[in-house]
Amino acid sequence: MKAYRVLLIDLAKTFGGAEVRVLAQARALQGLVVECAVVTLRDSALHARLQQENLPHHAVRAGRGNPGILLELRRIIRQGGYQVVDAHNVQSVLWGLFAAALAGAPGRVATIHSDYGGEYPGLKGRVYEGVLSASRLVARHYINVTEVLQQKAAAQGYGARSTRIANAVPVPPEPLRQKDTRLYADWGFAPSDFVVGILARLKPVKGHSYLIDAFGQLADLPHAKLLIVGDGPLEAELKAQVAALGLQQRVVFTGFRQDIPDILRALDCMCLASLSEALPYAVLEAASFARPLLVTAVGGLKTLLKHEQTALLVPAQDAAALAGAIRWFVAHPHQAVQIGQNAYHMVRQTFSVETMIASVLQVYDRVVG
């Protein structure tokens, strides 16, 4: 057992890939360090999951825009005697690492999940990048979840105190051989339908509108259906787009779901139409169930996956390319299955939770040494 206490900080309001990783680390570190707890916002989705799993945690009352959160985090770090503070997402880095410095915690780590400048090209992205730049005053080490982010750290001059540690998922011992249609009745689908799923927050960077437009170009494939899993600020706009294209019978919005493994087992194809990505858990989880992948060639996706081997990769913001790839999957079912199988074996060999945690502990050892 490592002789130090670890505090993971994740102040996200919603639940996404970063929160999946925080939960995975929190579970795995129990018993490997003296103590591991998570700080999150009270009543957030992550707070609910931590309560459900009975994992040690602190739920802060102050909002992310309230400077009082800095003092609350400093108090938690001091009272808990945490030597390692690992902050996930921009707000957590801003408040968490500066609170850790004020509290005297030596092991200050920032885990970076996204290229924030690329994901948010306007003022928001510049502010986020500014926060990360300022964090170099107090951060001892950075963990980047993709090689693209690691290269960015090197280009900006702090690669020597950065380490790439990829996301990881539990992988079943055998790939899924046949999809599970038990949820189809809930969605109004037939067992013979070809179901494409997109699992992502409903926000512009995820490219939902291009995928919906792609389905508008597939009128000759009425059995091709689209399952949109997630919630977010674009929900009304995307539903209006579906209605304008007359796709109400072919596109289903599920809202936020926690039964993601069951949904993945139901898909013929998992799609991410993102404009920018790091290493999304949705892709790794889909691959762990051997679901054929259709993704845009951006960020970590274009370095992780190989076209026509472990996925079909298409340009971002290209509805016609998405439609063409879906049409190819429908016309080539045996090749689609093989692509899913290849992705399964890739994830099983490379993205184990045990490997991720061993690498994370090496970073923690370094920053408290």
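the 2nd protein, sequnce then structure:
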Amino acid sequence: MALAGRIAYNVVFNAVAKVISTALALVAIGFITRYLGKDGFGNYATMLAFFAFFNAIGDLGLQSVTAREISREGAKESHIMSNVLTLRLAISLLILVLTPALAFFLPYSVDLKFAIIVAALAFVFSSVSMTLNGIFQKHLAMDKVATIELGGKLVQLSIIIIAVQKDLGFMTIALALLSYMMFNALAVFFISRNYFSFSFQCDWAYWKGFLKQSIPLGIASVIGFAYFKADTIMLSFLKSSADVGIYNVAYKVIENLIFFPAMVAGLVLPLLSRFIFTERAKFDLIANKTFKVFLVLVVPLVIGVFSLAPQIVGIIGGAGFPESAAILRTLIFSLAFIFFGQFFNTIVVVSNLQGKLMNAFILAAIINISLNLLLIPRYSYTGAAFTSVLTEMVVVACSFLIVYRHTHYRPTITNLWSIALSGALMGLYLWFFSSLHLALLILGSIAIYLSSLWMTDAIEKEEILQVLAGSKFARNNGAIVE
């Protein structure tokens, strides 16, 4: 299959699989919130926050740098992956060993402490699958990863449903996360063997050189955690589990939409990496079209979620979380900034400027932690939500300045007013017909937005292909030709 066709297939397949996986995740959250209530769901959200914490400190920037390095021409794929996977496993096992000591000193219930240890074990398996994803990314086989993740979600959801129906308690819900990660890691590992030969390798000199490149990004990831997920942990320290639950019903919606920018950025990263230093015109073209795709996705997401927040919260949390609707309306703006932060951060990575992100993330973390300490005691989850939006805004501004200063790139967008008009028409539909059934509101708003984009020529088929295929490049006997 030609390069353009392979990338287009991967995008479509991943989008469909991710939408289904997101739907399954939201169904699972619906079961959990109704079964555990505000306090129990708050404990579950705290466990997931620690899982994210382990992922942040255990990544060390290895995933992004691995995807970049194996995409280079002439890269020794097996050597790179064997060393990185061995290194990642060693780090993950160290975190697992240290976690019980950490949990012992935390001011939580015994069940929650054990759940945090389960999260650490789940992280070990997660680290394996995340590291190996770079192989599938390079070979344009992310459809396999999406299929595996979908299967894992089905396993997790099945365990959650059984736990709820048989009243098996909080710990069984926690173990569902471990089962999901185990399934993903084992499946990804065995399928990845079709692409490279793996062996445990401890090339200390290589590890040192690789870590020198990745650690700045890894530290940035840890600092990024401080403003992306620490709000939940801080809420769990400063407020009740019920407050954590209310906040995280809304936050789960945002978390399950973040895959959109990550998916697109992951698919274009190899192309951006290939052209950033060799063919700047092609890089600019792909980057501009990617930015436009992000904008086209952000507009309906913000308008739709803001308008339908009460209905969305009602579906996910039931009648027990009405306060979460206002939080969701605030947090949806943080998602908009996350989109563009992901875009500029991807350019930072492919430009080998990841060290420059350090100061930006430190600033964001300081702002986030300071505002949370100031606002959470007084405004609880509302203060945490506003802090999240302001922090993401700072990250986008800083990452853009890094990109512009060091690469002189800034996005050029065509048909901006057409996109804005399409969003406005969608918003008017949701406003005037708000009494309709939720399914009709969603389908109608999507139809209006897409129809308006098409009628105003806001985005054309050729532009999508340029994003997916690197300016309509096709692989011809191993060479990229226009």
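The chain has one domain: 3-415+457-472. Residues 3-59 form the longest helix (57 residues).
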